[in-house]
Write a structure and sequence with these properties.
This protein has 195 residues and is mainly alpha-helical. The protein is built from seven helices and two strands; from the N terminus they run αααββαααα. The protein has a single domain, classed as dinb family like domain (Four Helix Bundle (Hemerythrin (Met), subunit A)), CATH 1.20.120.
């Protein structure tokens, strides 16, 4: 499963999410995550819901069945199937969007971004939650330095107005942080987090 080739950042982020989900042992979905209020199943439900939300704003499907910001953790299907359906919907929606489109509808306020920024916002959501699920369940980080650097550049363009409700406070950077650590800290995560 890969996203449209005109959005490689989205394809990489979707693959990171799918890989993380497929790597979770059946008994590990209740494990705590860096999203302190949610277990791994709830993070997956949130991540899938966000992908479905982006898809719906772009005219693909009807969006998530539940509020992604209040996930019940009841997936309704096998975890891999939940992730695959959400990624497939988002990829299909973005495949119809030209890379130079000046404005697209997105679920983040103010509900409009350039296509490039919107695709990166959608990718950021998938990638960072792939990391959340991976580290919560004892897997290696799915984030590469190149992907993290691209997502950090985009995040700096839209995160601040949303920090109060969608992102935790910045974790102070340290000299020598790599791109992955910079991204995670900017999004309020501790790269050395453990359950």
């Amino acid at each position: 499963m890969s996203a449209a080739t005109n959005w490689p950042v989205l394809a990489q982020s979707h693959e990171a999410l799918l890989t993380a989900v497929r790597g979770v042992a059946p008994g590990d979905w209740e494990r705590p995550t860096p999203c302190s209020e949610w277990n791994a199943a709830q993070v997956l439900q949130h991540a899938a819901g966000d992908q479905l939300g982006y898809a719906a704003f772009l005219g693909e499907g009807t969006g998530p069945a539940e509020d992604p910001f209040a996930p019940s953790g009841k997936l309704g299907d096998e975890p891999a199937a939940v992730a695959e359906a959400a990624v497939r919907a988002a990829a299909a929606a973005w495949s119809r969007i030209p890379v130079d489109q000046a404005e697209v509808a997105v679920p983040l306020p103010p509900n409009k971004m350039t296509a490039a920024l919107g695709a990166n916002a959608c990718a950021l959501d998938a990638a960072v939650h792939a990391w959340d699920i991976a580290v919560a369940t004892g897997q290696e980080s799915p984030l590469t330095a190149d992907l993290a650097a691209e997502l950090l550049d985009a995040a700096r363009q839209f995160v601040e107005p949303l920090r109060a409700f969608a992102f935790a406070p910045v974790v102070p950077a340290q000299p020598g942080d790599d791109a992955v650590e910079e991204l995670l800290k900017y999004l309020g995560r501790r790269p050395d987090w453990t359950a």
